[in-house]
Amino acid sequence: MAVNMRGLTQFIADIRGARVRELEEKRINKEMANIRKKFKDGNLDGYQKKKYVAKIVFTYILGYKVDVGHMEAVNLISSSKYSEKQIGYLAVTLLMHENSDFLRLVVNSIRKDLDSNVEVDNCLALHAIANVGGSEMAEALVEDVHRLLISPTSPNFVRKKAALTLLRLYRKHPDVIPAAEWALRIVSLMDDPDLGVVVCVTALVMSLAQDHLDAFAVCYMKAVDRLHRLVVDHEYSATYAYYKVPTPWLQVKLLRLLQYYPPSEDPTLRSALHQVLQTIMNNSAEPSRNVQHNNAQHAVLFEAIGLAIHLDASSPLVTTAAVLLARFISSKETNVRYLGLDTMAYLAARADSLDPIKKHQDIIILSLRDKDISVRRRALDLLYSMCDTENSEAIVGELLRYLPVADYALREEMVLKIAILTEKYANSYRWYVDTILRLISAAGDHVGDEVWYRVVQIVTNTEDLQQYTSRVVMEYLKGPTAHESLVKVAGYVLGEYGHLIANEEGYSPIEQFQALHSKSQFCLAPTRSLLLSTYIKWANVFPEIRTQLLNVFERYRHVLDPELQQRACEFYALASRPDDDELLPSVCEEMPPFSARASTLLGRLNQKHGDSGDKRTWVHGGKDLNLTRAPTKRQTLGPTASASTIDATADQSQSELDALSSLAGLEISSSTPQSAAPNNGPRLATGPNVERWFEKLVCTAEGVLYEDVQIQIGIKSRYQGHIGQLAVYIGNKMTAPLTSFTATLHVQDPDALSVTFAKIPPSQVAPRQQSQQLLHVECKKAFTSPLVISISFLAGSHQSVSIQLPIVLTKFFESIHLDRPEFFERWKLIGGPPREAQTVFPVALDSAGELDLQRYREALAGSKLSVLEGVDPNPNNLVAAGVLHMSDDGKVGCLLRLEPNKEAKLCRLTIRSTSEDVAAEVQKLIQKPLRSTAS
């Protein structure tokens, strides 16, 4: 650029040639005066504006204040020449802050460049939005950036920059991006064939998903699918192989993204993930001599170990990972040691057993003395997480020995962790007192008030500790020095419980007073105030030293500090009263036990480990602490990682079945009433054809479920007992492929109905071709809501359709045959309501005006019930029977009577079952095909 502008080149040469700062400033002032004159005169062409603005930008980069050229920079942005537009954008991004009034003038120009078909114009505009974009600019242009990201005509380079621009805007102004509305469209780009686009989009999804887990839940399947294709199937170009490691930066992002979500229960996803993680660990078993290859491989490996721990901390994969981590924490490379210790701390925070980690306790303790402070910090975190009742004394003792030589940046955190571990895993009261007082004595100024507050609370609430603690603090006071925090503890403890040791040798009242008062001269005013409170309590219990105490109060009555002076005056008046006065004993009563409260030490420590921009899925401190950190992390995703909310079922209630015990031949059992879950699923496709197709497939095994101008969805199914298989055929009717194809299942009650894909759905459907998805279905309990499948794809624009799958309760029936006595015996035993459901609807007549019983028989047979001939005395009545199979609730029998009345033109349907829920649901399902038969 400077080569084409000789004036700029000469100006830069003059600045560089200035030998002293005064000459440099003189040259710059001269140039700025000339530029102001030129701008004031006007009539400058594009080249001259570009040259002068470039000089202004160079001056600003040198660190000089600039107050000219802003308007000219705005004008250059509107230029049609790239070189002029580039200088204009450069000046805007450098010279203007996000609240500058000039930015309002460039919004339209930036929008025009975003709409341009020229790639470089798009990129310049995106750079400006990302680097400057304030809230006003973000609100005005975020829709345009999103459109540029999702547009199929946008070049890959532009889409990458658009994704990163949205990420920058979300981090600065999260409210301007409707993340939930854009979720499906953004996630669909994770299937893009260009891995560069996928990397940028995944970074955006990672940030958005942390705050909108449900809306972005579909990304779980996308991430697993992409990882499987990269690691197992090796679907990537050579361009994205970094030292033979397939796009490690994308693998790391995908593995981290999966850790934001609870583990999926879908066996297909779990199997694919297990294969991916196993492959990554196998590839990293032997280190390479190439440093770059090792770095890339380790980056992926450590994230994979983190995901394996997140999925199941007791799995064989984690056992393999623990062996690898043991090798890494002994590595000669600082980065590898750091990552090994950090990942092992994660394992300690989630594992059920700490035995595999305890084997390497000596190596971890040695890491406390590593030459790198980051490694020392990770070793401290790991020791904190792996501590329990068995090794607490060894770990706390080692931390206390290391404390005097530890870095000042680590000491405050070490003090908090030692105090927490000492309290949490104390084997005896005396060990706790000895350790905590040794800590206070050794740590000095790094002991916060929370530490000695907690000591006071525990000693006050533990009667067995009071005498021993008084004796120990006296020994510390007899030493040549005592830190102020220790003096505070001693002042409180001796004031409350000093009388318990007053009769022992070396701990007499006068000796207690002399030991404590000798340390007061080195303390600040708040500590001296506390000691005055100790003295007034001694004046009550030790009358033999009251004279010495009155002398102290007398001296403090004349100090300048108002708090000390007021206390001294009041205490002097109290101590000077007659011995028989009851005021002093009532004022100086012993402190009552503190109410139960949470330790403030944990709160203080958690403040030091706050979440960063990339939120952690765990905290240091063992499994108990991580169980209560985020309840949503402990829930499991449904079988398909759907976004539906999983509601807990109601408490089970067992009904009385004395009279039904004779129905063993039919194996009828009571069912468990379920609480109705709210329908929070996606919006379903509607229309007369959609309803007709669904009702037809409820009674048949195969057929069309949905069709429009773009796709056709067909169903073919078979059921045996409580297990079923459903083949879903998605046909592409267009001449273009359906890209970023996503199929998501929404199960309203996953505890009652389990549906999973046999394999991860493909991400593309070829033109005029058909894709088959096999679903495994299991009926666990009685359910009322059909499964919903949501299909989304890109076909020019983003399309989405949600429809109900014909998986209903009657699909799990088995037809049985009963004779007349058996049927009516069971019918009477079941009785009426609430185990009976009944409805009336218009009767069906054939073309001759007679009852169309054959169509009724076909409808009942389609519902998998056995029509029993010759059972009902009335030949026009139909009776049927069946058994519902469920894996959890066993088998439930169901009996049916259909009584058509030609004269009344009405038909009565009666269902009886030992489960009232089953009776009501079957009545609702069967009346639909019977009504459609009538119509």
TrEMBL record:
Domain Clathrin adaptor alpha/beta/gamma-adaptin appendage Ig-like subdomain stretches: 695-806
Region (Disordered): 605-651
Subcellular localization(s) per the UniProt record: Membrane, Coated pit
Superkingdom of this protein's organism: Eukaryota
GO BP terms in the entry: clathrin-dependent endocytosis; intracellular protein transport
Keyword Disulfide bond set for record: no
Basic and acidic residues: compositionally biased ranges: 608-623
GO cellular component: AP-2 adaptor complex
Compositional bias of kind Low complexity: 640-651
Keywords for this protein: Coated pit, Endocytosis, Membrane, Protein transport, Transport
Gene3D superfamilies attached to this UniProt entry: 2.60.40.1230, Leucine-rich Repeat Variant (1.25.10.10), TATA-Binding Protein (3.30.310.10)
Annotated a 1,2-diacyl-sn-glycero-3-phospho-(1D-myo-inositol-3,4,5-trisphosphate) binding sites: 6-7, 38, 47, 51-55
Membrane topology recorded in Swiss-Prot or TrEMBL: Peripheral membrane protein
SMART domains reported in the protein's UniProt record: Alpha_adaptinC2
Primary location group: membrane
Function: Adaptins are components of the adaptor complexes which link clathrin to receptors in coated vesicles. Clathrin-associated protein complexes are believed to interact with the cytoplasmic tails of membrane proteins, leading to their selection and concentration.
Family, per entry: Belongs to the adaptor complexes large subunit family.
Name listed for the protein in its UniProt record: AP-2 complex subunit alpha
Organism annotation: Pterulicium gracile
Lineage: Eukaryota, Fungi, Dikarya, Basidiomycota, Agaricomycotina
